[in-house]
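Why show two proteins at once? Because comparison is the fastest way to build intuition. When a single record is shown, students tend to memorize it. When two are placed side by side, the eye starts asking what differs. So, the first record is below.
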Amino acid sequence: MNQYNHLIAFDLSSYGAALALVNQFVDNDGCRDFELSPCGTSAQLILLVRDALSLKVIREQASSLLKSQILDVQTVENINSQLLPCYLSQTKTSLQKKLYVFEGIFVASGLALMQELLSQGAQPVDFRVVRTSPKNVILTVTGESALDTTAAGRLQFKTTVIDSIQPSLKEFFQV
């Protein structure tokens, strides 16, 4: 999977729209599907792409093909090595000095936000998708210092910052 350095994520109004995009773009060479999931009455689709130019082409063509069915679309270039393991709940991080919780409704925007947070040095704790209609996407990260959370507002995520984490909260996150 390391040959795919970029991703494009869609939140769509129907599962059929997601299948149409897979049919149109996935060739298992330059573009492969990472996840296709129904979520209540909508769907999410994550495609892995080899080159940045293809990301732009896919985004433009998908918008042209299914514009009215795309609820959100985000691209991530040069995927941070922690992003997909975090999304798949494969990370184990001890809480540091600060805890950040971001809550929104689009997986695509959640992936873009997590990429931004990781680029600032945040450590991923959890990437949770409650697959209801509407979805609830919860990102949790930790760090020793303050993070720039302006991207969260732009991507329509509510932000909660918890300073000076107490032992009882640390225990909550230990497995």
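Second record. Ask yourself what differs from the first in the token line.
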Amino acid sequence: MTLSPLQKTVIRGGLETLYFSAAHHLMRPFVCGLGVILTLHHVRPPRPDRFQPNRLLEIRPSFLDDAVRWLRRSRIDLVSLDELHRRLTAPSTKRGGQRRFACITIDDGYRDVLRFAYPILKRQQVPFAVFIPTSFPDRLGELWWLALEAVVARNKRVSLLVDGKERSFECASVADKRHTYEQLYRWVRSFKSEDELRHVVRDLAGRYQVEIASFCEELCMSWNELAALAADPLVTIGAHTVNHVMLAKVPEQSARAEMEMGRSVIEAALGRRPDHLAYPVGDASSAGPREFRLAAEAGFKTAVTTRPGVIFPEHRDHLTALPRISLNGEHQQLRYVRVLLSGAATAMWNGFRKVNAA
């Protein structure tokens, strides 16, 4: 997902207002729920490049360390997905009186997780889950959003067919590149079919000599690296489909196969059958009621979205439509973490609905 400058300003302004007005503190008893599931992607030192349209997907190791230390100081239990499931499904009498929890999840299996995130989480004995699209360690995956970024980054002008007509986009300045990437990203995300999106990005990458497959080799953990990580009892390996497709944009049979085959490949490679699933991209345009049903039918204990929200007791009836809160690379301030974990910001975002599974 990419955000426009206006959207970033609005989000940051909202978080600042909730924090400095202390509204988040006043709202917390009513909207904090049982706990939260946190989402990460990349954990690595900041890069100097001025053009980084996917920067929201990465956080600094120091920020992760600070966030975990703050969670500990705040007496929030850091739990695994299995423990989250146990707490949600326990009889209400057994849930009462428990401290709030936070569950850390990391999508896609990038190598920087092993290099930077794992040492921090291991040192502080924090359980966490890593969701793996199996085509990434198989070196067959298409990280199309990075291919799109590379095309724009490496060229001063980009041309392609848009709705049957040849169009050109200026990419000379950093501002031009940001504008062009935002336009192209929103255009391809608007396609009804995942196949159409992949076709357009492949064509664009081919025109400008960007090798899509190279991103897997460069950035994603191998099966050997994943096996070493999975050997630690702190680590849960979760399913994330085979090809990282937006499941709502493929036929039902394909969506079911992506879930089940991704799980089976992980079991064959690592000797563990995943009980938990993350929907790729995970917003409302990528996973909805059909996908929630398919995940339940496949027998997953939980399945997580990227719809923003905290976990309430009512999610016991929606275990395959769980919300998460992103640790966003654009907002690496502990005060924002405080606001997000209070539940105030996501409550306002969701119109104070506890469950958003439609």
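One difference worth noting in the second protein: The CA atoms of residues 345 and 351 lie 10 Å apart.
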